[in-house]
Amino acid sequence: MEWLFLPRWPAMVVGVSIGLLECLAFLLLDKPIGCSTAFARTGGMIERALGRPVMEKPYYKLFPPVVDWEWVFVAGIPLGAFLAASLSGEFRLEWVPPLWQQAFGPGLPLRLAVAAAGGFLVGLGARWAGGCTSGHGISGSLQLAVSSWLASAAFFAGGILSARLLFSLSGG
Amino acid sequence: MKTPPLLLPEAYRKPLALLLGIVFGFLLQKGGVTRYEVIMGQLLLVDFTVLKVMLSAVLAGMLGISVLLHFGLVALHPKHGSLGSSVIGGLLFGLGFGLLGYCPGTAAGAIGQGSLDALFGGVAGILLGTCCYSRIYHKIEPKVLRIGTFGDITLPELLHAPRWKVVATVAMLIGAILSALSRRGL
Q1: Nearest by CB to A124, which of B74, B129, B150?
Q2: Residue of A45, A53, B17, B75 with fewest CB within 10 Å of its CB?
Q3: ipTM exceeding 0.85?
């Protein structure tokens, strides 16, 4: 059982396991794995809690702000990651990742501002494209969906571009 | 499409989904892809862990689903797409991906390992982004999302080729990429 305590598993072991997890999801839940819809539903729940008229919006008619199977799935992700990181002693509270500190210094406001701006585009783009790196990138690609191969190519094209631009500003 | 024969009764689906989510988060963290350094390393093309995880997941999942599909045990759920949705949405996502250094699933996983920028920057931003989308959806739906609509077609349908041939070709391509990466020590 030593492997449970290792900090890293080989990428392909992890990938093949995720592929098997997808098979279980299709077989037993009749659903592909996805993550971004749960964020959209959570956004709707927050808006409703703030007293906004959520159900009048056409988008929330398509994706009502309710706890569905995918929401529960996404809620499990931090639990599993916490377990994995705790077993290997990798769990640590960290505000600014080391690579960011190297490039842009330890300042928290700048990291949070760029992360939030990036997150905004990630949330907007995921719903615009109808999925994220899980729903399109893995689940859609393995079904050979044309929409997913196209979206995945665009995810990485955009990501490579903005990561390059960002790190060119660091001067490093 | 008919219901898969092994679909769990309603009452068991959420508990199983929670369990699958826990395993997924566990795997993401053990794979290193919940780390900012690993994701940015991929986008800066110096660390290919993310690509290796994704391609081997697609390879194993595609082969597994193909076998299950052959025996009538699963149904496919390909997503609807259009140039206006998949390409423009995908590029917006990608631009954000490079700034944030996490995607929605790995941001959730990063919280579990203690990365607070993924929570207070990432998840907060993602929620604002989805809320913004719910506001503009009714405007862009008729104008942008319908540009170049191709629907929920799959590669075998697009290429008018037998499914097994496309599966075999994609499997060989992924195998070639993975072995080229390992030959170069990436």
Answers
A1: B129
A2: A53
A3: yes
pLDDT at res. B3: 84
**Of the candidates A46, A26, A69, A48, the residue with the CA atom closest to the CA atom of residue A123:** A46
- DSSP states along chain A: -GGGG-S---HHHHHHHHHHHHHHIIIIIS-----HHHHHHHHHHHHHHTT--GGGSHHHHHS-SS--HHHHHHHHHHHHHHHHHHHTT----BSS-HHHHHHH-S-HHHHHHHHHHHHHHHHHHHHHHT--IIIIIIIIHHTTBHHHHHHHHHHHHHHHHHHHHHHHTTT-
> Sorting pLDDT into bands at 50, 70 and 90, what band is A171?
low
Q: Tell me the average pLDDT across A64-84.
A: 97
Q: Quick: pLDDT tens for A36-49.
A: 999 999 999 999 99
Q: Which residue of B has its CA nearest to A85?
A: B113
- Of chain B, the percentage scoring pLDDT greater than 70 comes to 99
The answer to whether B17 contacts A69, with C-beta atoms less than 8 Å apart, is: yes
Q: For residue B1, what pLDDT is reported?
A: 56
Residue A143 and residue B76: Cβ atoms within 8 Å? yes
As a whole number of Å, the end-to-end CA separation of chain A is 42
Q: Do B81 and A59 touch (CB under 8 A)?
A: no
Residue type for B106, please? T
More reliable by pLDDT, A53 or B18: B18
d(CA B186, CA B173): 17
CB contact under 8 A, B123 and A164: no
Q: Residues of B with CB below 8 A from A75's CB?
A: 18, 21
The mean predicted confidence, pLDDT, of chain B is: 97
